Amino acid sequence: MKKYGYLATLALTAMLVACNGQEEAVTQQPSGSSASEVQTTAEEKIVTDQLGREVTIPEKIERVVTGGILPYFSTWYVATNSTKEIVGMHPNSYNAAKNSILAKISPDVLHAKTSFIQNGEVNIEELLKVNPQLYVETSTDENSINKITEAGIPVVGVQTIDAAAAEPLATFNSWLTLTSQITGTTDRADRFLQEGNKVQSELDATLKDVTKANKPRALILFMHNDKSITVGGSKFFGNQWLNATGAIDVAEQDVQGRKEVNMEQIYAWNPDIIYITNFTETQPVDLLKNKVNGQDWSQVKAVQDGKVYKIPLGIYRWFPPSGDAPLMLKWMAQKNHPELFTYRIEDEIKTYYKDFYEFDVTDEEIHDILNPSSDAAKY
Known about the structure:
The chain is an alpha/beta fold. The protein contains 15 helices and 14 strands. The longest helix has 21 residues, at 187-207. The protein has helices at 4-11, 72-80, 91-98, 102-105, 124-130, 142-150, 168-183, 187-207, 237-244, 263-269, 284-288, 301-304, 325-336, 345-357, 363-370; strands spanning 44-48, 54-58, 64-66, 86-89, 117-118, 121-122, 134-138, 155-158, 217-224, 229-232, 248-249, 258-261, 273-276, 308-310. Helix content is 37%, strand content 15%. Residues 1-39 have low confidence and may be disordered. Strands 9, 10, 11, 12, 13 and 14 form a six-stranded mixed sheet that branches.
């Protein structure tokens, strides 16, 4: 099992750029240039994105737009305690935000515009109406990065998965580090790193004597409907969550990343536990009651034992990198080993939200976090 300390240390190594305001024009530097070669004004600074590109941005940024890097708006909140700077985001991000507790904690997030994404692509004319000082995009979307850069808007590329390994904690902390460069603040990022280390150490101590034979065999159901079954395997976030919380990933040897499979493969794996992400509308009851046309889930052990769980949604979906990562560890560890982890997850959520978000979450809101609606997966 990989330690959270490793995950988080590796994690805290690269992140996004965004700060607070200046209506002044900014320029993006060629990838080969260095900070010492770039001329900036007192109102500008240079950050290095996760593509290794040097990007000149305003010293203070007040208007940020996030594109295909869907969780980033919540990362900005974790790093800054604010969402008022997020003036635009991808519609898929907006849907997650609208159905998350973050909409109550920081309602400014719901003011973000989404019209600049049309037919899945960036519409430059609409984007210019939003007037961003900074655009944050997935590092692999070269087309959008180039198009937005040519329009005169500085773009920061962010990796969706940590380059060294698909570790959600490592990835999230790398985003926090980059955001700290942009905003010039590190206190909140440091606190999250420390908490993550602490939680993983506690899990490790409790799980140290658990043998492989006593670990549940689990499956991550990433995307699902009556026509398609997509699961996660190695080099994907679910694999690391399972390894870190005392479970065995049944797809680890057969799937790298994510892959579409059939029911015969599900039967062959026959997992003890099934975790369903928030990137699909499928709910546990759909499998437990065998409601999916053309698929017989009643033959799967996890369904027979009633161990099918929807992954929670707090300030963002808990499956990918999130500020709620320490809670994800505790939640999944308890599902994997309820006899070892006897805390009330509701109490853990309440304490965490008070300490880190300065928000008194209600019992009803905790219920919604732990039982997210299918609407959160609709784009």
